[in-house]
Amino acid sequence: MKSIVQKTQIITFALFGFMLVFAQKSMKLPIDAVFYMEINGKQLNQKINWQKLNPLLHELSKKDKDKEKTSWNDYSKTGIKYDATQYHYASFNDSIQTYTTHFIVDNKEKFQEFIHSTKKKGLEISKKKNYSYVDIDDNIFVAWSNDRAVLSMVNYTKPYKNIWADAEVDSAVAVADSAAVAVDSVYVGEPEKPFDYKEEIINLKEEIKYLKDNIKENNKEITRIQKDIKYLEKNHKYPKENVDTQHSEGEPDVYPKEEEYTEPAIDSAYQKELDSMNIENFKIVKKIAEDRFDLYFSSNLELEVPKAMLSFRDPNSDAYVYTDYGRMMNDGIYGKMMKRFEFGQFFRNAYDSNSYYNLYFDKDKVKLVNNYQHKNPGIQKTISSVYRGKKNKKLVELINDKSIGYYVMNVNGAKSFDMMYDLLQDTGDGEYKKEMELMMETMKIVLDEEAITKIAPGNGIFVLNELKSKKVDYTDYEYDEDYNEKEVKKTKDVAVPNFTFAFATENEGYWNRVFNVMATNKHLSKKFSRIGNFYAFKDEKGDGYMDHLYMTVKDGIVYLTSATENVNPQSQSDISKQWAKDSSKYPLSGRLDIQRLVTGLEKEFKTPSERKTLDLFRKNVGEMYFKTEVKGESIETEMDYKIKNSSENSLMYFFDLFDEIYKIKEADKKPQIL
């Protein structure tokens, strides 16, 4: 009996082991993904008003001239399960860029109808073992099974020669001297190629193809080139009387009359080669998409995401985004270029970070929370120390509720040196590692960090009080039919800022000496002078945005302002007192009243369409507020945008605003009835 039980256990464990081996596993997020996003469909679908959104989407679909006219008008019933989570991710390298979306289908028949209405006419659906797919555009593919669908956009460019590779750089340096000597001999010794009229015709036809993109501006140039082509076809050379065809119209008897010529068709051999390249690229793109579809639909249809990417995800947000900023900047052509420079690793270290975003569409505002985190824990710790500065209550006294906006900074200036040292130090075992270490030690010896920090410890504020309109003279240029230039004196209205920029200092004497030098220097004193307790800058021409500027040092604060009264503490209401209180709490914070900003820029809106857009903005744009602080092992920034219209929520606010702007633009395209 015991033997039977043991055998049964062995068989059971064996079967279970086989099941584990052959069970479908989750599809892992590609290791080269630099962007990942989750859309919280359960929440967002409740905030979308499809009755408003459908007409707009239907109208926009009519603008796609490459597709046949679609009859689809209800985008709320596409067969896609909108109240489920959607997953998006993107990756790139030198030759392949992909963007992929995973979503759930709750009505396969309806979804297939929708795909038929969006794909190009004549494109057939391909059926695979466990899914179907179709290329709805040249580089956009959609695949689906019973309840899952994947959209994949794939771009492919032929790999180029890596001119930034280290090996090539080294070899280039090694032969630099010999190459420099050989250049002259190569150019002198190389025989000049005979003129090939056929090659010249091909080049000119390609030039026509380029000029057609701006046909209205280049009709005259196209006509001239067409004449050159016809003459070359007949005589196999340019006319002697018109060798410089780029600058001469030629004698009337050299070329036949313009109307005798029609636009030549693109050379068939050239077109075949172009089509062949496009077909080859499409085959590669299609194969990449198919491989990704095969991988996903042979899995258990779940996407496995590394935990590190989800470190700051809030399940209550409407959308969550992760970006590998370091790889975005350091991989590809930019990163290879940086490797070529002696201190390129410094910039690579600075970029080597991740960012995480949580987006919320609330009833009365949009909220975006960003967490920044450097990949090196040591550098991140140093960066965090920069954001732990002292507070300065005198600066926030300049905040007032009548201002357009402000930006307050309370950081630790001394720690900025430590951050720079860390970025310079972590440069790997490069060729200049010892030199870099020596340079850093020299900087620490030469720079008196404490003295420098006293000049500007790290507390500052910028307040934009208002925008005033001012007339200025300027010179414009007009041209007659023969392109003769003529100067024309004109006037225009510009928006001049009334502002205050101020920062704390522990060394007032230094700044007083700086301002005194500007007022007494033989050259600078023409524009700088001293008026009482202020040093003044004045532009005599008065044709710029900033023709007056005042500077002074008072009670440990350095002021640069457009008006002397701005240095006094401002009267504050309850709301501005709260802003001032909040600004003292955070390393960085700010506010911008976009409605007042747009009103101040009124003179910049001149055409009827621009005036309509201005009126729309006045009624709808809101107020922006942000704050930054250290949260755990990251730098967290929260940005709030308060809406000011009657939209159901902040998500529909953007659709409503876009719809109004779209209507204004479309109305301008219609011919005016006299």
What does this entry look like structurally?
This protein is an alpha+beta fold and 674 residues long. It contains 22 helices and 22 strands. The strands form two sheets. The protein has a 20-stranded antiparallel β-sheet, sandwiched between helices. Strands 1-9 form a two-stranded parallel ribbon. Strand 14 and strand 15 form a beta hairpin. Helix 7 (197-211) packs antiparallel against helix 8 (215-235), helix 11 (332-340) packs antiparallel against helix 12 (344-351) and helix 21 (608-620) runs antiparallel to helix 22. The N and C termini lie far apart (104 Å). The model is unreliable at 7-23, 166-192, 243-253 and 255-261 (pLDDT under 50).
Helix content: 40-55%
Structural class: alpha+beta
Shape: globular
Number of helices in the DSSP assignment = 22
Please summarize the sheet with the most strands.
20 strands, antiparallel
Please indicate the percent range of residues in DSSP E strands (runs of 2 or more): 15-25%
The Cα radius of gyration reads 33 Å
Mean model confidence by pLDDT: 80
Q: What's the β-strand tally?
A: 22
* Ends apart, CA distance between termini: 104 Å
Low-confidence stretches: 7-23, 166-192, 243-253, 255-261
Compose a concise summary of this entry.
Helix content is 41%, strand content 24%. With 674 residues, the protein is an alpha+beta fold. The strands form two sheets. It has a 20-stranded antiparallel beta sheet, sandwiched between helices. The protein has a two-stranded parallel sheet with strand order 1-9.
